[in-house]
Amino acid sequence: MLKKFLLACVCVAVLASAGSGLWVWQGLQGLKKPVVLEEPLLFDVPQGSSFIEVVGRLEAEGLVSDRLWLRLYGRLEPEQTRIKAGQYEFLDGMSPRDMIGVMVSGDTKHWYVQFIEGWTFKDMRAALAQAERLQKVTGEWTSEQVMAAVGAEGEHPEGRFFPDTYAFTSSETDLDLLKRAFNRMETVLAEEWAAREEGLPYDNPYEALIMASIVERETGAPHEREQVAGVFVRRLQKGMRLQTDPTVIYGMGDSYQGRIGRKDLRTYTPYNTYRINGLPPTPIALPGREAIHAALHPDDGDALYFVARGDGTHKFSRTLAEHQKAVREFQLNRREDYRSSPAPKNSDSDEDAG
């Protein structure tokens, strides 16, 4: 009888252990099941949050049915408890274990802001002001304060920031992006300057940057950049004025309303290259790497003039007579859809520059 009783106790213990093991196994397997979300969920992990606190919030958000299993999972896999602070995006179909993995890896949610080639510093700051989730600290700052903060105190901001798409997290500020764009431009300009052709009419990289900004604004046709740069370089070398409309427009500031006339060409500003010799005092826009490269590797042809055809490209001419003929052909009898450059990426407005 005693033997039968002991055997029964052993059987009960074995069955209980097996049942508990199955129960635990099923609970842990549940952490691999996809969670249904109607839309992406942003989940914020403040600095200093513990694994237990995060697990409790996951339960409160309905992302896990019972925190017990995540706590047990953390005991079995201690490395999975090293969650990093930040804002994370949980998507439909992710499992609780997937969510923990994202937070352990620190794969925080990123947003993006784009600075476009040909934009001005003013355009850049407007884009930063409109960027969602980006902390704003420079909104009320002057240009002088911005340049001091990026490490270029007393310098002009125009053209000093590299146009590109920049990713950021919710913990970053507009100043962080400005510093990144500024440093990127410094790096790109230094690289291109080091590989420049000899005999160019620039005394320093900044003058090349000014030229690159003019090239950027003069044409949106990639294959023309070196040709445009070649015309301007030859004009500088011959002591001719650049006579480029984008510099006039920049000098007009807010008074520019889409067209420039003879009066504007005659009006003196430090940027009116119909009135000044050489380069304007600063860049007039953000040049991309391709425009910087073109300014430092200009076409070696003999054209000294060009005029917009009206389709975004230009007619290049060697002599003034050829140029005047092209002007009569393309400027005096414009089509309704005439454009001096391709439509800007961020605007549908027309512009009579060229």
How would you explain this protein's 3D organization?
By secondary structure, this protein is mainly alpha-helical. Helices cover 44% and strands 7% of the residues. It has 13 helices and six strands. The strands form three sheets. The chain has a two-stranded antiparallel sheet with strand order 1-2. Strands 3-4 form a two-stranded antiparallel sheet. A hairpin with a 5-residue loop joins β5 (305-308) and β6. Residues 2-20 and 335-354 have low confidence and may be disordered.
Q: For the report, how would you describe the main beta sheet? A: 2 strands, antiparallel
**Class by alpha and beta content:** mainly alpha
From the alpha carbons, calculate the radius of gyration and give it in angstroms. Answer: 32 Å
Content of β-strand: 5-15%
The residue ranges in which pLDDT falls below 50 over 5 or more consecutive positions are: 2-20, 335-354
Instruction: Give the overall form.
Output: elongated
- Average pLDDT over all residues: 85
Q: What is the count of DSSP helices, taking H or I runs of 4+ residues?
A: 13
Helix/strand order, N-terminal first: HEHHEHEHHEHHHHHHEEH
Helix content: 40-55%
Q: How far apart lie the N and C ends?
A: 108 Å
Give the total of beta strands: 6
The quaternary organization reads as single chain
Q: Strands across the major sheet, in which order? A: 1-2
